[in-house]
Amino acid sequence: MRITMIGSGYVGLVSGACFADFGHNVTCVDNVEAKISALKSGVIPIFEPGLDELVSTNYKAGRLNFTTDLSSAVADADVVFIAVGTPSRRGDGHADLSYVYAAAREVARSMKGFTVIVTKSTVPVGTGDEVERIVAEERPDAEFAVVSNPEFLREGAAIEDFKRPDRIVVGTEDARATSVMEEVYRPLYLNSAPVFFCDRRTSELIKYAGNAFLAMKITFINEMADLCERVGADVQKVAKGIGLDKRIGDKFLHAGPGYGGSCFPKDTMALVKTAQDYESPVRLIEATVAINDNRKRAMARKVIIACDGSVRGKKIAILGLTFKPNTDDMRDSPSLAIIQALQDNGADIHAYDPEGAEAAKGLLSNVTFGKDPYEISEGADALVLVTEWDEFRALDFRNLSKLMSSSILVDLRNVYPEDEVSRHGFVYHGVGRSGAVA
Ligand code: NAD
Question: Which end of the chain is more exposed for a tag (fewer CB within 10 A), N or C?
């Protein structure tokens, strides 16, 4: 199969490299020249474990190519995936579909022969209909089908998720497109990944419903964490106790600073907006969005309380900036709101993140970035663990207690048991556990 991937970001690059690894002939397109020239010279513009090797192997084997020339890449393709960004539209929170529609128009102008156009970007219900209208308007003569195929990979585990997905969802009722998509995903059939075919609108909604459900689950356990702090219970045990029930499951029940990242915040908001437009409000998700927004500033208040009620003039060391470990993605990371709130209260912020610092520098001001946890902790009044990178799981607290001016740990990911850090003279504050700040 000749596959063209429009957009070579977190989704397009991973999907393109994985399809190439399955033996398909893939061309990844991006309109950012610097990204394409970096990729051609072997530099991966994002951090995703294992991606550099996967890209380099398939590039050398000639199955994976990179270009800014969309039109020649599309002309040769059997299938064109659109994997461009769909950020929140400034001002109203709807998904901004301008990149998708612009890509669709460009694809229409260049395609030759029967072409399957697949939206891999996360797009609201009805977007496929509009893409179809745009393509038909641009090229009334063309033979094509528009398919929805949402992506469910998680940054940080993207290759594994793509190659061994829980399911593949394909929205099309066109027979020719169905057989093309079967061929695209045939290598995964062999891994017995369930491929679920449905109509396009249903497929589009599955992606939003899935993300909204997960965001709601996180928000649920975060509210339980607050309640645990009030009543003297332990949220980790509550999570374990309910997670053992197979109807509930144990995933996405880790209390923390609230969800962030490039998907949940914008997708929950877009679903709320779509539902309002259709006069069928999704109140659970509206509440989820509001609770999660408040939570980030509440985490800053937790730090302030841990510092005896004030962070003015105090040095606060922040461990981890990305919204989760194993990515350099800073989009909508809770750290941004937490740091801003601490700065608003007069804190002097020093931060370290293994991969996210470069992106964070463009989003934060007046933050001093360090090269490891110990450098930023020198003279610090409190250490705040925001993202649970592996390298923060075995900190040398003996050393930290000597370096810091007060031994306070605010562990927003519940990485440490209280007794392990209190042995070294630290005052411990977790989330929803005994000893936590209410
Ligand atoms: P991204 O911003 O990392 O990548 C998008 C890329 O598309 C950019 O490199 C941009 O330059 C390029 N682009 C935009 N318009 C273009 C055009 N006309 N021609 C060529 N290139 C163009 O975004 P992402 O994180 O990969 O997300 C892409 C989509 O996938 C979004 O809808 C997102 O919601 C969805 N998604 C993301 C994830 C994730 O974990 N990041 C997971 C599942 C789904």
Answer: C
**Catalytic annotation on 307?**
no
CA 97-218-337 angle, 5° bins? 65
Query: What is the CB neighbour count within 10 angstroms for residue 81?
Result: 31
CA distance 39 to 56: 9
Query: Could you tell me which of 159, 149, 132 has the C-alpha nearest to residue 196?
Result: 149
The residue whose CA has the least distance to atom 25 of ligand 1 is: 10
Structure tokens at 96: 């901004």
Quote the tokens at residue 329.
């993605």
Q: Of 18, 28, 228, 263, which is the active-site residue? A: 263
d(CA 319, CA 162): 29
CA atoms of 118 and 151, how far apart (whole Å):
11
283 token code pair: 């109140």
Closest CA to 195 of 171, 213, 215: 171
- Which residue owns the Cα nearest ligand 1 atom 3? 9
* Contact residues of ligand 1, CB 6 A cut-off: 6-12, 29-32, 35, 70, 83-86, 99, 102-103, 106, 121-122, 151, 153, 155, 262-263
Q: Going by CA atoms, what residue is nearest to atom 1 of ligand 1?
A: 9
The pLDDT of residue 91: 87
Cα of 228 vs centre of ligand 1, distance in Å, is: 39
Contacts of 294 (CB under 8 A, 6+ apart): none
Domains (range + CATH), the chain? 2-198 (3.40.50.720), 233-438 (3.40.50.720)
Give SS3 for 433: coil
| Block mean pLDDT (10 aa), the chain, length 438 | 97 98 98 97 96 98 98 96 96 95 98 97 98 98 97 96 96 98 91 91 98 98 97 97 98 98 97 97 98 97 98 98 96 97 98 98 97 98 98 97 97 96 96 69
Task: Of 269, 316, 327, 284, give the one whose Cα is nearest residue 412.
Answer: 316
3-state helix, strand, coil in the chain (%, to 5): 45, 15, 40
